[in-house]
Amino acid sequence: MTDKTAILAPSEKIIFGHPAGLFVLFFTELWERFSYYGMRALFTIFLVAKTTSDNPGFGWSNTDAIWLYGWYTMLVYLASVPGGWIADNLLGQKKTVMLGGILLCIGHTILAFDTEVSFYVGCAFVILGVGGLKPNISSMVGGLYKKGDEKRDIGFYIFYMGINIGGFLAPLLCGWIGETYNWHYGFGLAAIGMLFGQITYYYGQKYLVGVGDFIGKVDHPENELRKKDLTPIERDRVKVLLISFLMIIIFWGAFEQAGGLMNLYAKQNTNRIFMGWEVPASWFQSLNSFFIITLAVFVGGFWYKWKMKGREASSLFKIAIGILIMGWGFLFMRFAASEYELLGQSSMHWLFLAYLFHTIGELCSSPVSLSFITKLAPAKYAASIMGLYWAATGLGNKLAATIGGHAAVTGEKTTFTGIFVFCTIFALLIVLILKPLKRLTHGAEDVIQNP
Hints:
mainly alpha, Growth Hormone, Chain: A, two-stranded antiparallel sheet, about 75% helix
């Protein structure tokens, strides 16, 4: 037999059973998330740092810092809506990702300068850059696989690992440098990470031929599809998408306490002394990614065995269970707040346990939801609907900031307890209406076996 790998074009090459382009997107997203989570780990604790300290910040209150954090993270993800529209109607996904990466490099570089104006201008460029990159690179992952390919879900899990390797390293490196030496050195390291990501994407274009191209030209074979209205099946699927967006808002509205309220709680209320050394508060932001890297195979294996036993394993069910488990993580934060009320500080192990449950919940929900969106979204609106997915994530971030900001009034213990109760009730309601929701998907998750 002829060695087929010797005559394959770069875009047709397979690595570990997946298109080589997946690994280009993997490393691009790894470095983009390194830059984003590096800044995220420092954002609120930089804002509340006293202006008179050796490493001065803005000296804001917790409430004001969480307020700005909420608006920033909401806008970061809401920008995915115009980012998706630009890809669908003007540039295509591939070129829009390139543009987003350039804007991110500019934004993170500006954040490295030590002025108040540069902080706001840098944030603005990051918002625009994430809006261009985030929805479209996710859609491109889906575009690497044929319809019904059972490897698509695994491909998204691999891609999700890239996100979390970046998310694990960023708080450790950017957080340590920012907290120990200078906040803006930490922001500068995030800029260097984004530059690596942009270089990876630029030189990896040969592995992405035919993926993410603009399909709006008159002579393109998919043009006729773009002219048609939605079919009845597509309309039903869009209804399910709207429900899934609500679930996404709820999930991130609780989960994203991590970068706001829980980040400040680690800094201000937690005993972080370990063997005589004070652990940087920003390092706790790495726990989520660490648990994802170490537990992803086990969670994925559990769901595979669960499905093989003929039990319910639809994406909607997994997302609901993810919300339930993540919500239970706030029980540990309630215990931490109770300990703080009694002793004036709480132990680090409560944060470890909370992030462990949050991560298991995320592993059940988030990578599955990305794949689920690409299965249900009508082809002609693929990038725009992925933009709406990230917009829902943004609204969840703003909801998280609103809830976290009220903790100064209601008390942290009450806030953490309320999140636990609401997530539990909401998840159980979704499970109760699961059957009619699945009917509206019209078999979108059915696997087509390869010959």
